[in-house]
Design a protein that fits this description.
Elements lengths: L1 E5 L6 H12 L3 E3 H11 L2 H10 L8 H12 L8 E4 L5 H10 L4 E6 L2 H9 L1 E4 L5 E3 L18 E2 L6 H15 L1 H5 L4 E5 L4 H12 L1
Parallel strand pairs: 1-3, 1-4, 2-3, 4-8
Antiparallel strand pairs: 5-6, 5-7
């Protein structure tokens, strides 16, 4: 089973991809993990991505990301399928993917901008151990203090509402159009519900 999971920030893509991976025994491939793994393995594309782009805080161009994706899905653990999280991010990447494999289903996690902003802007990160909390859904026992290491929590700049709005606009402009590209394979799931309710809906669609 070859799957894509698509949705705006805070829709729970990583969480649901991990649950799908465990249930169907297929690898969860996120672009971030893919970049790090390829760099650790010392592949040409992985080192290029790290040294010239993401290691410098720059966006990795499509041609490098595409090569890393191609290399990753050739590995043995992908022979029975995979769930892609964070790729494709745009139409050119989707067209590239069409040329190297066939996707069975695209899971679209539907979440309003308002809810996404609410979820992300509630995030707080520990200055010490980087543990992540949410002041609404997963607050620390003591306000602004990490449960694990007693260090102070803070709000990252890219978790502030204005920054979140920019990221959501990028999603709407660049990534959302791939749903039309894959329209016959898309299943939509309401991501505003609990993790358990969302996963139940996802599994129902996949089964």
């Amino acid at each position: 089973m070859k799957l894509l999971i698509v949705g705006p920030q805070a829709a729970g893509k990583g969480t649901q991809a991990k649950l799908i991976s465990e249930k169907y025994d297929i690898p969860h491939i996120s672009t971030g993990d893919m970049f790090r793994s390829a760099a650790e393995q010392g592949t040409e594309a992985g080192l290029k991505a790290k040294e010239e782009y993401w290691g410098q805080g720059k966006l990795v161009p499509d041609e490098v990301t595409n090569q890393l994706l191609y290399d990753r899905i050739q590995q043995d653990d992908c022979k029975n399928g995979f769930v892609l999280d964070g790729f494709p991010r745009n139409i050119p990447q989707a067209e590239y993917l069409d040329g190297i494999t066939s996707i069975d289903k695209v899971i679209s996690l539907e979440l309003s901008d308002e809810e996404a902003i609410k979820r992300i802007s509630g995030r707080r990160t520990c200055k010490g151990c980087s543990e992540i909390y949410n002041i609404t859904s997963n607050p620390p026992k003591q306000e602004n203090i990490c449960d694990k290491c007693d260090n102070e929590l803070y709000q990252r700049d890219d978790d502030k509402p204005d920054a979140v709005k920019l990221r959501l606009q990028t999603y709407h402009d660049q990534t959302e159009p791939i749903l039309e590209h894959y329209k016959d394979k898309v299943v939509k799931v309401d991501a505003s519900k609990s993790i358990e309710e969302v996963s139940e809906a996802v599994f129902k669609e996949l089964n």
